[in-house]
Amino acid sequence: MQELPILNNTLNNNTETRLKKPNWLRVKLPIGESYKHVRGLVDNNKLHTICESGNCPNMGECWGAGTATFMILGNICTRSCAFCAVATGRPEAVDWDEPQRVAEAIHLMKVKHAVVTSVDRDELKDGGSIIWYNTITAIKTLNPDTTLETLIPDFRGFKDQIQRIIDAAPHVVSHNMETVERITRKVRIQAKYHRSLEVLHTLKQGGMRTKTGIMLGIGETKEEVIETMKHLVDVGCDVLTLGQYLQPTKKHLTLQRYVHPDEFAELREIGYDLGFDYVESGPLVRSSYHSEMHVVKGYGRNKWITEKQTVATTVNDLH
Ligand code: SF4
Questions:
Q1: 307 or 39, greater pLDDT
Q2: Which comes out higher in pLDDT, residue 46 or 122?
Q3: Ligand 1 cavity residues, CB under 6 Å
Q4: Which of 108, 155, 188, 262 could form a disulfide with 127 if both were Cys (CB 3.0 to 4.6 A apart)?
Q5: CA 108 to CA 130: how far, in whole Å?
Q6: Contact present, 132 and 155 (Cβ < 8 Å)
Q7: Chain center to CA of 170
């Protein structure tokens, strides 16, 4: 699972040095009072955020707006996805107070929209699904006006564990495909492409609004991305995010290319044409980016239709 990770303003590996970082990937550093406020709450409540673990390029913007993506079940993962900046190893014991602390931090931060994700806990019998259930329930109880997106692991495909998420009923449930079928094994060795599709399918059948993310620039072809998009539409996935992969360190999966913003725009069009309800596509897009808008059914598609109509009207006016 996982947030589209990465990003580092420092180019510290051969590939990124060889491929000159384009201007469209330059981002603002995190500063400002709101940022400091969120930083204090996260530290005081001993919480983890994927924003930091993944070195997210949008941290300044998101934290400055008073939002953050919390990472539950610790900050050590049992998996070793080749792109991910989160540490792999033996996780610490489950902290049963964590759900309440996350709920309280969200309450103190007064966030309108919260995102929660986790590391994978394959060593646990329940895959961490009980903590997930408790966290969603605690957040909803303490923050009835807050919308909630959960970015979940595949729970190794166990339906009873996925059912706990459905029972807790967050507003959006995302599970990231991360890449196309051909290179899934290289990108996330312990995961399976079709298992992830099945997770999304199960969530959809359970009535969830579903979402996934794909990273570009790691060796996939455009045709393969489109094929993956079709598979996702077939399982009823509602929201798709497409963003540029950036290599966290030289030990991580090698960056193959920077995808031009025009190609992201083209894939956005294709996504809407295929039937997604919301497509967020751009170099800096990460799965939590603008996620408060992904909750609302029809918002993205209606915006896209309006944009197309505006362009058509403008073209007609010119003739
Ligand atoms: S499952 Fe993979 S992507 Fe998710 S935190 Fe673990 S190593 Fe990172």
A1: 307
A2: 122
A3: 1-2, 77, 79-81, 84, 86, 119-120, 188
A4: 155
A5: 24
A6: no
A7: 15
Q: CB atoms < 10 A from the CB of 76, how many?
A: 15
To the nearest 10 degrees (0 to 180), the angle between helices 159-168 and 193-205 is 40
Å from CA of 54 to ligand 1 middle: 10
Kindly state the percentage of the chain with pLDDT values over 90: 66
DSSP letters, 182-202, are: TTHHHH-TT--HHHHHHHHHH
Pairing of strands 48-49, 69-72: antiparallel
What is the three-class DSSP state of 88? strand
Q: How many helices (H) and strands (E) does the chain have?
A: 12, 10
pLDDT, average across residues 22-35: 72
Q: Which residue has the tokens 């792109």?
A: 83
pLDDT at position 286: 85
State in Å: Cα 273 to ligand 1 middle.
31
Q: Give CA–CA dist 313/307, Å, rounded.
A: 10
Q: How far is the CA of 188 from the centre of ligand 1 (A)?
A: 8
Tell me the domains of the chain and their CATH numbers. Answer: 14-306 (3.20.20.70)
**pLDDT for the residue numbered 9:** 37
What beta strand segments (E) does 92-137 contain? 113-118
Q: Which residues contact 121 (CB under 8 A, 6 or more apart)?
A: 73, 74, 78, 91, 94, 127, 128, 153
What phi and psi values does residue 76 have, to the nearest 5 degrees? -120, 130
Can you give the length of the chain in residues?
319
* Tally of CB atoms within 10 A around 316: 8
Q: Give yes or no for residue 96 having a pLDDT over 50.
A: yes
What residue's CA is closest to ligand 1, atom 3? 2
Distances (CA, A) of 235 to 15, 183, 198: 35, 20, 8
